[in-house]
Amino acid sequence: MPSTPVADKPSAVRIPLSVYILGLSVFALGTSEFMLSGILQPLARDLGVSIPKAGLLVSAFAVGMVVGAPVLAAATLRLPRRTTLVGLLAVFMLGQVAGALAPTYEVLFVSRVLSALACAGFWAVGAAVAVSLVPGNARARAMAIMVGGLSVANIAGVPAGSFLGQQAGWRSAFWAVAALAAVGLVGVLMLVPRTAVPTGDDAPNLRRELRIYRDKQVWLALVTIALNAGAVFALFSYLAPLLTDVAGLPESWVPSVLALFGIGGLVGTVIGGRIADAHLFGTMYGGIAASTAVLALLALLAEYRFAAIGLALMLGVTAFTTAPALNARMFNAADAAPTLAGATTTASFNIGNTVGPWLGGLAISAGWGYAAVAWVGAAMAAAGVATTAVSSRVHARSRVVAASPARTVEYAEV
Predict the structure, then answer these.
(1) Among 35, 103, 314, 349, which one is least packed by beta carbons within 10 Å?
(2) How far apart are CA 183 and CA 269, in angstroms?
(3) 84 near 121, Cβ under 8 Å?
(4) How far is 376 from 362, CA to CA, in rounded Å?
């Protein structure tokens, strides 16, 4: 059997620096999205609102991400992609400045929504740009760098933002993220190649791109992404009280365990980025099934502190190992509409990020305790394994149909 040419191997493909700049920008976006949990108390005191009301700022960002991704992707379809990325980063940066200067809760709320819309649009267009800058057999590696920006945000950005906000006032955290966004903006201007908008038959066409939603594989990919994200965030949103109230850890340990989760996420992203291009469905199966097992074990062993710590680390690894494959799967399924593919991926992740914590909250409100959120996550992850199985079967069937001689003749006659 002939060996695979080195140039065709995913690991041999050189990822351009511009993709890493996009990952740096995602680091800023991710820090802004998640840092609020660490500065909620001083923010609430300063603005004279309750903690639950301050917590709505987190929900506002998530909803803005869900709505903003497809809307902005469609609205900017005919614009040059680099111009779109620069514009969205500029709006995001101004949103952070507005948040830092916000005199009232209402102004801060509006700034969070605007920032989320820009963040969602950047994710959607940035993902499409990242996969366009590499060969088809390196898409998962490119997406791993984008997702890696989010992992590093959880490891370093969020704790640093929380520390800065607690030491120098919550507004300082917003100023820091604005500065990071400015660095990303300069990097995009300097390193992301300028591309002309296609014309003629290749010109972007919203109606043509919307046709991807007729494909069941796109919907299966969307549901799988949402289930995987929901499984993780059903647990992660309540990890702090689970660690203190169930595992009996001191509150001072919580930031370290959250950082461990982020480290696990970075490790998983690296693993997933290296193996997903060659073993896409295998990575999805293995990662989501492993998350199911980790969540079930956490539900059973949550009262044992070292087991809880170790399983939190493992959940970061398993969840983020799957992320590059899930992203690449969506782009493969919706190859004819890369911008809407990125938007759909972003929206589906955030749907999971919203539904998972909501279901976990219902379990807690029912009196089942904090450990129950791990069972909720395990159930969602198991459902994700099932949708992956269906998606794999549909994919295999479509390849057989496309390769059959009868099908080829049919296309030739048309």
Answers:
(1) 103
(2) 23
(3) yes
(4) 10
Q: Which residue in 14, 290, 6 sits closest to 145, CA to CA? A: 14
Q: What is the Cα–Cα distance from 409 to 178, expressed in whole angstroms?
A: 57
Q: Print pLDDT tens along the chain (414 aa).
A: 444 444 445 555 677 788 888 888 888 888 887 777 667 678 888 888 876 677 678 777 877 888 877 777 777 777 777 888 899 999 999 999 999 999 999 999 999 988 988 888 888 788 778 877 777 677 777 777 877 777 677 667 767 777 777 778 889 989 999 998 999 899 888 888 876 665 555 555 666 667 777 778 888 888 999 999 889 888 887 887 888 889 888 877 877 887 888 888 888 888 887 887 778 888 898 999 999 999 999 999 999 999 999 999 999 899 888 887 887 787 777 665 666 776 777 788 878 877 888 888 888 888 888 899 999 999 999 999 999 999 888 877 765 444 444 443 333 332
**3-state secondary structure string, 257-319?**
HHHHHHHHHHHHHHHHHHHCCCCHHHHHHHHHHHHHHHHHHHHHHCCCHHHHHHHHHHHHHHH
Q: Which regions of 32-144 does DSSP assign to beta strands (E)?
A: none
Counting every residue written for the chain, the total comes to 414
Output the pTM of the full model: 0.72
Do the Cβ atoms of 31 and 37 come closer than 8 Å?
no
Residues with Cβ < 8 Å from 289, sequence gap 6 or more?
Answer: 381, 385
